[in-house]
Structure to design on (553 residues):
């Protein structure tokens, strides 16, 4: 049997990607369940869940988790309330400057994020928003707008207008048509946008650090400290596995949207 | 909607997009404007305000600041080159191959999208760091002179390539859609080799996607924080960690703002390029 060239190329790419992409994550999982792992052993020499108990018993971890969840929920809901009506307007209404305004939202990516965060934080210093919950919410809100407008807007555009017209024909009012016909069709994309926003806000580090520290400490900040502190390797590993697995499962639900052309188009592809 | 007047329609639309627009003005245009103006001003002891380039002069005459800036440019350029060198072949491979293997390759290459930067950084420390798993694995196959890139300038490069691979690949595969199988086969029929096909057919069609990839990545890489902070050397450091330290530890928000403005100006060329590429799209 002749092996095709594309199979050889594909196999090489796959092996490189496994070594580069998968192995680091696998290492974290091994560390999370290792009680002892000394170099140069290829696998932990003692396995166990001891560090799960000690990590979860830490007060700083629990309070940071609470703060991060509260922030992510607040930012996601606020972003949805602000952006979803705009997404609908961009998709379904004709008004002056529609295209220009849409462009201006996509152009948020044209600004270096960290530079912008430093500028916002400098402004917040004089507004006394540094060290406050709402200060962090505001600094994180800006990052979420692009996805919260772009993805739902594409979904609203894709709603089958014939169904809406049919509903109107049999006597449904505009509000009822919107709730019963339009929203359900756009719901998967809206859900995906909200999941993405929630997860990315949970892991947002720069804005929360500049505006929140040292008073308010979010989960990523606690993780950073545990990782760079490095006294016990397993703390970081346990937290990584513990926090990443739920977010990974959440993102898997959104994967069809994430890996799509529509998502890439939001970035100008 | 035909019964509505143009002005009613305009008003409705603008009202709906008003809130996010207000957020953008308050959290983007206003802070940026204020920062740019304030970093150009100096307040004297008697309270009078005068224009001054002192902070920028300080940045460009301070060897440490300049070294950080140069390190940031170097990291950005090297990472960008590596990203394209890795993602373009994968995009070409994925475009021409329909197999289970190709699906696995695509899933693996997009996987980093599902992993937050902070976890990647931690994972790479444990994997490529000194006495990490990679070193143990290499020693098993008899390679004993591994020196870890962790805390060297290559640490952030490795992490940033990891982090930026999925979006780069998505944009390049979207661009590859323009390359038709027929065009390639026609070229093959008249005897064109792989190099000619790449150079004459694929590359010209991919120019736009490559420009978008370049602009987007430069802007994102130049201001990256978590990965260089965790994987890079402490000195010189990239602009992200430098700005954070200047703001939070050294407590000089004015100087941090000046560094942010310099970051803005450096990226502005690519920002403009990015916006130009966006406006050329028809389906927005």
């Amino acid at each position: 049997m002749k092996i095709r060239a594309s199979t050889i190329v594909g196999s090489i790419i796959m092996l490189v990607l496994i070594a580069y992409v998968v192995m680091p994550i696998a290492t974290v999982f091994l560390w999370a369940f290792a009680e002892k792992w000394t170099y140069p052993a290829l696998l932990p020499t003692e396995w166990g869940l001891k560090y799960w108990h000690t990590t979860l018993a830490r007060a700083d971890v629990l309070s940071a988790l609470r703060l991060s969840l509260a922030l992510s929920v607040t930012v996601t809901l606020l972003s949805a309330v602000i952006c979803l009506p705009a997404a609908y307007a961009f998709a379904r209404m004709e008004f002056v400057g529609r295209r220009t305004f849409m462009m201006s939202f996509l152009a948020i990516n044209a600004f270096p994020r960290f530079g912008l965060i430093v500028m916002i934080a400098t402004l917040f210093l004089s507004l006394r928003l540094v060290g406050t919950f709402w200060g962090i919410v505001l600094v994180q809100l800006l990052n979420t707008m692009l996805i919260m407008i772009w993805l739902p807007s594409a979904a609203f555009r894709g709603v089958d207008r014939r169904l809406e017209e049919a509903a109107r024909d049999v006597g449904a009012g505009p509000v009822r048509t919107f709730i019963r016909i339009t929203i359900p069709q756009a719901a998967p994309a809206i859900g995906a946008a909200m999941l993405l926003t929630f997860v990315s806000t949970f892991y947002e580090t720069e804005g929360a650090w500049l505006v929140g520290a040292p008073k308010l400490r979010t989960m990523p900040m606690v993780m950073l400290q545990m990782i760079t502190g490095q006294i016990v390797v397993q703390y970081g590993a346990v937290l990584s596995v513990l926090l990443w697995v739920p977010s990974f499962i959440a993102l898997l639900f959104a994967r069809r949207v994430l890996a799509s052309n529509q998502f890439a188009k939001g970035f100008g592809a | 909607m035909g019964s509505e007047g143009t002005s009613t329609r305009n008003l409705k639309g603008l009202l709906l997009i008003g809130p996010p627009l207000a957020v953008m003005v308050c959290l983007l245009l206003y802070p940026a404007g204020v920062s740019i103006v304030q970093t150009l001003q100096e307040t004297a002891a008697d309270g009078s305000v005068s224009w001054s380039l002192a902070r920028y002069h300080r940045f460009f005459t301070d060897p440490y600041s300049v070294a950080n800036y140069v390190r940031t440019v170097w990291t950005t350029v090297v990472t960008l080159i590596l990203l394209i060198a890795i993602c373009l072949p994968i995009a070409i491979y994925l475009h021409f191959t329909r197999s289970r293997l190709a699906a696995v390759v695509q899933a693996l290459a997009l996987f980093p999208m599902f992993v937050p930067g902070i976890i990647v950084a931690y994972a790479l420390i444990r994997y490529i760091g000194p006495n990490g798993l990679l070193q143990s694995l290499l020693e098993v196959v008899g390679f004993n002179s591994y020196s870890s890139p962790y805390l060297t300038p290559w640490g952030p490069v490795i992490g940033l390539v990891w982090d930026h691979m999925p979006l780069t690949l998505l944009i390049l595969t979207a661009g590859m859609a323009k390359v038709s199988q027929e065009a390639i086969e026609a070229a093959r029929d008249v005897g064109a080799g792989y190099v000619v096909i790449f150079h004459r057919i694929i590359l010209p069609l991919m120019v736009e996607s490559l420009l978008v990839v370049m602009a987007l990545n430069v802007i994102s890489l130049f201001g990256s924080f978590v990965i260089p902070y965790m994987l890079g050397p402490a000195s010189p450091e990239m602009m992200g960690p430098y700005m954070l330290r200047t703001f939070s530890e050294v407590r000089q928000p004015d100087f941090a703002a000046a560094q942010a403005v310099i970051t803005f100006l450096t990226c502005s060329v690519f920002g403009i390029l990015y916006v130009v590429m966006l406006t050329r799209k028809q389906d927005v």
The two ends of chain A are 40 Å apart (CA to CA). Strands of chain A lie at 34-36, 46-47. Chain A touches chain B through 99 residues (CB under 8 Å). The mean pLDDT of chain A is 87.
